[in-house]
Amino acid sequence: MRSRRQTLHSLGMTMVEILITMVLVVLIFSSIFQLVQISHRRTLRGGDLTIATIYAADVLELVRGGPYEAFFKDGQTPEKDLDLKTVFSRSSFFKGYDPGKYDSRFDIRVAIGPAGEMPPSKLKQVSVTVTWKERLTGRIPHPVKMVTFYSPSNL
């Protein structure tokens, strides 16, 4: 028959067992924490991509809503890398428009040019490119680029 002291001692945990348990718990929680971090990063990246897409579509719609003559004059040379203030200062149609409404992390550039090689084509191409810096890493991902074609209403 065992003594009372031996049975109580055999029911407890040794220091080695406690340390092994703690290491396993730390490993499990650290892997869960890494998954949460990756998920958070991807959520921010997806949100930025969505915002950039909305900004590009918004600018294209504003250009298409404006008068053709404000942007495209016959014989005009193609223009690349225009900022929004330059684009919208061309017409009184956009007098109340505020380019500052867009998040300053996003750089929005507009390129305006002919849609084809053959002059005097009235069909024009407008492309909007949006770039930004990621919030966590500060790196610049692939830009969002949208292109549309624009012609006068009587064409």
Write up this protein.
The chain has about 160 residues and is of the alpha+beta class. It has one domain. The protein is about 45% helix and about 20% strand. The protein has helices spanning about 5-10, 15-65, 70, 85-90; strands at about 80, 105-115, 125-130, 145-150. It is rod-shaped and about 95 Å long. The N and C termini lie far apart (about 105 Å). The mean pLDDT is about 80.
Helix content: 40-55%
Radius of gyration: 30 Å
Distance between the termini: 106 Å
Trace the largest sheet across and list its strands.
Answer: 1-2-3-4
Return the average pLDDT rounded to an integer. 81
What proportion of the residues form beta strands (DSSP E)?
15-25%
Instruction: Briefly note the structural class of the backbone.
Output: alpha+beta
User: What characterizes the major β-sheet?
Assistant: 4 strands, antiparallel
β-strand number = 4
Topology diagram in text:
Layout: H1 4-11, H2 15-65, H3 68-71, E1 79-82, H4 84-88, E2 106-114, E3 124-132, E4 144-150
Antiparallel strand pairs: 1-2, 2-3, 3-4
Please sum up the structure shown.
By secondary structure, the chain is an alpha+beta fold. The protein has helices at 4-11, 15-65, 68-71, 84-88; strands at residues 79-82, 106-114, 124-132, 144-150.
